[in-house]
Amino acid sequence: MAERIATIASRVGLHARPAAIFAEAAAEQPVEITIALEGEPIEEALDASSILSLMGLGAEHGTRVVLRAEGEGAEQALETLAAVLETDHDAQ
After folding, report:
1. Is 15 marked active-site?
2. What pLDDT score does 3 carry?
3. What is the pLDDT of residues 42-70, one digit of tens each?
4. CA distance 69 to 90
């Protein structure tokens, strides 16, 4: 299983617009992606393509999250999604 830690860059955290952007990007990946707060048990990981799960995660600006995926293309998918999380989508 591939794993990647990312830091939430959006000033409002992973809510509303940033969550929607991330969920859409996760749904486009060729593998299923999970997300969890760093330090949380793997069993508590959530579906990264679910906007409701993302908003319920409570990830604020600067929070570190763990992305996980398994299968062909997992590493690239995680890099792509980490880049989405590490971009401030609220910057004007």
Report:
1. yes
2. 97
3. 999 999 999 999 999 999 999 999 999 99
4. 27
Q: Is 7 helix (H, G, I), strand (E, B) or coil?
A: strand
Q: Which distant-in-sequence residues (6+ apart) come within 8 Å of 41 by Cβ? A: none
> Where residue 92 falls among pLDDT bands split at 50, 70, 90?
low
Tokens of 82: 């980490």
> Can you tell me the mean pLDDT for 59-86?
97
The catalytic residue among 6, 8, 13, 15 is 15
Distance of CA 65 to the CA centre of its chain: 7
Residue with tokens 């995680």: 78
pLDDT of residue 79: 98
Place of tokens 């996980």: 68
User: Concatenated DSSP letters for 25-78?
Assistant: HHHTSSS-EEEEETTS-GGG-EETT-HHHHHHTTPPTT-EEEEEE-STTHHHHH
